[in-house]
Amino acid sequence: MKQVLVITGASKGIGHATAARFAQQGWNVVNLSRSACDIPGVTNMAVDLTSPTWSQEHGEELQALVGTPQRVSLVHNAAVMTKESAQTITPVTLRRVLELNVVAPAELNRLLIPHMLADSSIIYISSTLGRKAVANTHAYVVSKHAVIGQMRATCQDLAGTMIHTAAICPGFTETEMLREHLGAHPDVLAQITAGIAHRRLVQPAEIAETIWFVAQNPVLNGAVLDANLGQIET
């Protein structure tokens, strides 16, 4: 049975771990990102998903590559996080973040849903910040709230197709994006882990395992799942 994972941003972090998890199970993996995924057997499409014209340039190639396998799992993983507030954000920054975090998933859905049969899945990677907010991460917070809304709309639109969808909200995960956002400030990292019940960062492989579980279980259709090791309420 041909099964295909289409994932954005599999060159590192959660995406890389997810590509590895599905590949271990014999799935064909297609990665869409600017940088290649180094896992043997992964098919890489060099795509800049922040470009408004990417689907016009690569859409037909992607559709031909995927074909109509027995199962497709489409994982919307790629994201960008920027630092700004409501007082400082510019339209350019907001449009760039929304283009990758929200518009690209919508366009991928449009391209690939016609190629998805029953038991396929669409999995959105939101964030803990898709449910709440912190200061100075304005565009990212807005986009991750939108991702959850997009998943819920997708669930309603796909009623009767037997394609299921869910949103996973990782907590603080040990990825390059988080490290770059925090900078070289061990005190900040200590403050973060102090607010996690397990007193450590989530590992990308743990989120990959959650994605794999969701892809296999249509009972989670429409669900929003926290994957954050437990956050201490204050």
CATH architecture assignment: 3-Layer(aba) Sandwich
Helix and strand succession?
EHEEHEHEHEHHHE
CATH domain class: Alpha Beta
Q: Could you give me the name of the CATH homologous superfamily?
A: NAD(P)-binding Rossmann-like Domain
Percent strand equals: 15-25%
Which structural class is indicated by helix and strand composition? Answer: alpha/beta
Strand order of the largest sheet: 3-2-1-4-5-6-7
End-to-end separation: 49 Å
* Separate helix tally: 7
Annotation, overall tally of beta strands: 7
Helix content: 40-55%
What shape does the CA trace take?
globular
Q: Which ranges are low-confidence, i.e. pLDDT below 50, for 5 or more consecutive residues?
A: none
CATH topology: Rossmann fold
Instruction: Give the tally of structural domains.
Output: 1
Mean pLDDT: 94
- Give the biggest beta sheet: 7 strands, parallel
Determine Rg (CA atoms, Å). 17 Å
Protein name: Protein FixR
Family: Belongs to the short-chain dehydrogenases/reductases (SDR) family.
GO molecular function: oxidoreductase activity
Keywords: Oxidoreductase
